[in-house]
Amino acid sequence: GEDVEQSLFLSVREGDSSVINCTYTDSSSTYLYWYKQEPGAGLQLLTYIFSNMDMKQDQRLTVLLNKKDKHLSLRIADTQTGDSAIYFCAEDSGGGADGLTFGKGTHLIIQP
Amino acid sequence: DGGITQSPKYLFRKEGQNVTLSCEQNLNHDAMYWYRQDPGQGLRLIYYSQIVNDFQKGDIAEGYSVSREKKESFPLTVTSAQKNPTAFYLCASSPGISYGYTFGSGTRLTVV
Fold first, then answer.
1. Contact between A92 and B97 using a beta-carbon 8 Å cutoff
2. I want to staple A90 with a disulfide (CB 3.0 to 4.6 A). Which of A100, B6, B37, B70 is the partner?
3. Residues B26-42 pLDDT 10s
């Protein structure tokens, strides 16, 4: 079945760039997503990328997609304390009726 | 403003009780989903519904039940058959397959 893998933790210094990585197995995915979850809250859609794109940039966020290796990354430039959260990678599993498949989330920890 | 509302934010259940978690959306989305979130386990799909009066079991449906009598509403009942119900429950909706989700703010259920 489909699987999405992420590292559980990432620690970076404030002001540095954060790079959160994700690998997925379903080659038929059309869209891949990044969500952010702050403590005690729901998930917020950060950005997404269409599978025929290599890169998408949105202000401090850069998404890179390597479709051959099924590898997705989210780069956050100039990381701030407000970026501290859990980041989830998700893929649409080729349009399966049960919706998106999520990774287990990466906890981004910001050091002062 | 359109959105998805979960209530209550916190819920306490005694052993052997059924409880119902509310999820309402005014986004005119066809699809709705229920997830359970436990620390370190990411999101696990409980039930989903692609259309009114139809719903399907997800990966961990045992001990839960749902209904979809209206497009706007997708309540989740946690029954006494669910042996370990303490968790954070998230509801989501989307316009359809392969679209990103909008999440509610979650309900934290605790067994006392």
1. yes
2. A100
3. 999 999 999 999 987 88
